[in-house]
UniProtKB/TrEMBL annotation:
Lineage of the organism: Bacteria, Pseudomonadati, Pseudomonadota, Alphaproteobacteria, Sphingomonadales
Native organism: Tsuneonella deserti
Required cofactor names: pyrroloquinoline quinone
InterPro entries: PQQ_b-propeller_rpt (IPR018391), PQQ_MeOH/EtOH_DH (IPR017512), PQQ_rpt_dom (IPR002372), Quinoprotein_ADH-like_sf (IPR011047)
Family named by the database record: Belongs to the bacterial PQQ dehydrogenase family.
Presence of keyword Cell division: no
Name listed for the protein in its UniProt record: Methanol dehydrogenase
């Protein structure tokens, strides 16, 4: 394959004549607010910005960061979540068996205050597609709330660690697991399911934060009643107009096992009272077995937070043939587009398009490729659909070589961050392709409903770099700068008012770079790979800290045969300037697992 055939930005948005200069800063709503030094949800705010207003640690002193203390939860699966800080306590939850720990930040070394062990069913390990991971947890109303791998949601008292409620959402024996981060808005908890490769019916639900009672549930496929499409739904584009499209765009009887699970991150617009989330691949992954657009998979929904009613939806990859889940984060940014400030939703899809949508209506404002791709030859602005490259369509029983991106995209679930100081989005991405062979499959409850066999490799096919960190200008639809990395960058990023961006690599480096130009300012080798999400917070001593979990796993394991790939781990690292802990204590290491 010639690289020129799949370079980033080979498909640009329509020409614009903006009165705003390239790089003119946008903004976002920092709600729900809270103390600047706290970090009580995975993204810190409803907008999914992952931006911190703290600036004690900045470009002038970040080179002095040292480990202040460490903590091990003892679980050797992928560590994909971010620790949370509320007041004087840090809360962290392990991957399976999903043990929760409260750590006392008022004392040197942050000793354990309590441990909660929910003892989920071990059966869930065999049902999880891609490692028994957990992508996060949430704090609200005096509770720590999170999903268990065996399809339960639990709420734990922040002070005592006592279980307050536990709600069963599905039967794990039939293939449904839960790996997403619970998301709290007011008195509601929003959760979704995993299991797209098991032929589950994908859904997204709201629970009462006080009691755990289910308030509503909306499916990704099925009748309009199942999908909660009614009078409020506004189909902006003709392919979304019609009744029961969640059935009619499928062969008879297939929608009920059509996947569309929701295992990514959620965002919320408090002015519109809408929650936004994505849906996964259709099932089975063999496209010839399910002709049609397969609505509403590989898509985004905007729903009324109180009722669950769908207000609009947009499908990123119609009739998804490559496993390009649409679950990646939806960043709610206010951006100058075409000379006008627009309230937008920015989404880096697995299919390698960076979309900018109007978050009130679902109008597509921009669609630019951010990394190498060749599955599509461009974006059709009349139909608002990518144009499929016929040479890259999968075929049953035949190997189709060099499809870019592969099934995990050029960006998977790992969340980016946004800085209003620079106007840039910072995202970890991949630089890989796949050779794909399909075979027909049949649905058997609780077993894989897949049919894809992939061999992933670097874009150049010669062992080149598998990843990068990019700074993306969402207004111009172009990279501002990028940093090549030997391995896929599967950690989340955070941006700070100190003009820093923190991220980790799957071979175990944790790094800080200048948010304006990407200059490497600091790095530390950790004991395992980093696929989790860093945070920064103020300790009770008024000192700023940066924390991140190490523990490689999940989709990062597709690189495990590469030289230099690290062993699994389970260590949370907390850094400060000169490594000072609370009250000036010395660095401390501790193990909390069995």
């Amino acid at each position: 394959m010639g690289l020129a055939a799949c370079q980033p930005n080979d498909t640009a948005s329509p020409p614009t004549h903006s009165a705003f200069a390239r790089g003119t800063h946008g903004s976002f709503n920092p709600a729900p607010g809270g103390a600047p030094g706290d970090w009580t949800s995975q993204a810190r705010d409803y907008a999914n910005s992952r931006y911190s207003p703290l600036n004690q640690i900045n470009t002038s002193n970040v080179g002095r960061l040292r480990a202040a203390w460490t903590f091990s939860d003892g679980a050797l699966y992928g560590h994909e979540g971010a620790p949370l800080v509320s007041g004087n306590t840090m809360y962290t939850v392990s991957p399976f068996p999903n043990r929760a720990f409260a750590l006392d930040l008022t004392k040197p070394g942050a000793p354990i205050k309590w441990v909660y062990d929910p003892a989920p069913s071990p059966m869930a390990i065999g049902k999880a597609c891609c490692d028994p991971v957990l992508r996060g947890w949430a704090v609200g109303d005096g509770k720590l709330v999170y999903n268990l791998l065996d399809a339960h949601v639990v709420a734990v008292d922040l002070k005592s660690g006592k279980e307050l409620w536990r709600t069963k959402m599905a039967d794990v024996s039939r293939g449904t697991t839960m790996t997403m981060a619970a998301f709290i808005v007011g008195n509601k908890v929003f959760v979704g399911n995993s299991g797209g490769e098991m032929g589950v019916a994908g859904w997204f639900a709201a629970l009462d934060l006080g009691t755990g009672k289910e308030l509503w549930r909306a499916y990704a496929t099925g009748s309009d009643k199942d999908v909660k499409i009614g009078p409020r739904f506004k189909p902006l584009y003709p392919q979304y107009a019609g009744k029961d499209l969640g059935l009619k765009t499928w062969p008879p009887g297939m929608a009920q096992h059509g996947a569309g699970s929701s295992w990514g991150f959620v965002s919320y617009d408090p002015e519109l009272n809408l929650v936004y989330y994505g849906t996964s691949n259709p099932g089975p992954r063999v496209p010839s077995q399910r002709p049609g657009d397969n609505l509403w998979t590989s898509a985004v929904f905007a729903r009324d937070a109180d009722t669950g009613e769908a207000v609009w939806a947009y499908q990123f990859t119609p009739h998804d043939q490559w496993d390009y889940d649409g679950v990646n984060e939806m960043m709610l940014l206010d951006l100058p587009i075409n000379g006008k400030l627009r309230h937008t939703l920015v989404h880096f899809d697995r299919n390698t398009y960076a979309y900018v949508l109007d978050r009130a209506t679902g109008e597509v404002l921009k669609a630019d490729t951010f990394a190498p791709q060749n599955w599509s030859t461009g974006f059709d602005w009349k139909t608002k659909r990518p144009i499929i490259n016929p040479a890259k369509i999968p075929k049953v029983g035949e190997e189709v070589k060099n499809i870019c991106p592969p099934d995990i995209g050029q960006k998977d679930w790992e969340p980016p961050s946004y800085s209003p100081r620079t106007g840039l989005i910072y995202a970890g991405i991949f630089n890989i392709c796949m050779d794909l062979t399909n075979h027909k499959v049949s649905y058997i409850a609780g077993t894989p409903y897949d049919g894809m066999e992939m061999y992933r490799h670097s874009v150049d096919g010669k062992g080149g770099d598998w990843g990068a960190l990019i700074a993306w200008d969402p207004v111009a639809g172009k990279r501002a700068w990028s940093i090549p990395e030997k391995f896929m960058v599967m950690s989340g990023t955070i941006a700070t008012a100190g003009d820093l961006v923190f991220y980790g690599t799957t071979d175990g480096w944790f790094k800080a770079v200048d948010a304006r130009n990407g200059k490497l300012l600091w790095r530390q080798k950790l004991s395992s790979g980093v696929i989790g999400q860093p945070i920064t917070y103020l300790g009770p001593d008024g000192r700023q800290y940066v924390a991140v979990a190490s523990g490689v796993g999940g989709a990062a394991m597709v690189q495990s045969a590469l030289p230099g790939f690290p062993a699994r781990g389970s260590t949370l690292y907390v850094f400060s300037v000169d490594g000072l802990d609370v009250n000036g204590g010395k660095p401390t290491a501790r193990r909390g697992g069995p």
